[in-house]
Amino acid sequence: MDYFELKHGSVHCEDVPLELIADEIGTPVYVYSAATLRRHARVLREALIELGDPLIAYAVKANPNPAVLSVLAREGLGADIVSIGEYRAARAAGIDPEAILFSGVGKTAGEMAEAIAGRIKQFNLESVEEAHTLSIVAQSMDEVAPVALR
To answer: Which of the listed residues 18, 44, 54, 77 has the most CB atoms within 10 Å of its CB?
Structure first.
């Protein structure tokens, strides 16, 4: 179901006229449907049900809007992040750290340390140099960093 509908000549999002939103908030404005986000998360989860309970991780770089992330967190989605800022946004939205994957190039030692301390699920490593840095950081914290090589 699509929660954006044309009613009486006006586009509505979940029964709220977009004109009303534009009048109250101003333009430009982005309008998201929480019902659509929830539905898509559920449809995806249902499509993968035969896999057991796979981790479905939303790419935070696609849209780090806190309200969007909160809806997806409540639906049990994880997060694929590429920066510590995205990690913090995901955590603030309620995404379980054990459902966070840290991808992307250029992770700093400080970012790695914060993510390790936060108990993220996995680092997706992009280079030998990055693996070396992560090893040094994890050892200095007396931790083992969970990794995947890419």
So the answer is: 77
Condensed to tens digits (0 to 9), the pLDDT of residues 19-65 reads 999 999 999 999 999 999 999 999 999 999 999 989 999 999 999 99
State CA 126 to chain mean position distance: 20
CATH assignment of 53-149, among 3.40.50.360, 3.40.50.1110, 3.20.20.10, 3.30.70.270: 3.20.20.10
Q: Is the pLDDT of residue 1 over 70?
A: no
| 31 touches 21 (CB < 8 A) | yes
- Among candidates 116, 77, 111, 112, which has minimal Cα distance to 93? 77
Residue 123 above 70 pLDDT?
yes
Distance of CA 125 to the CA centre of its chain: 18
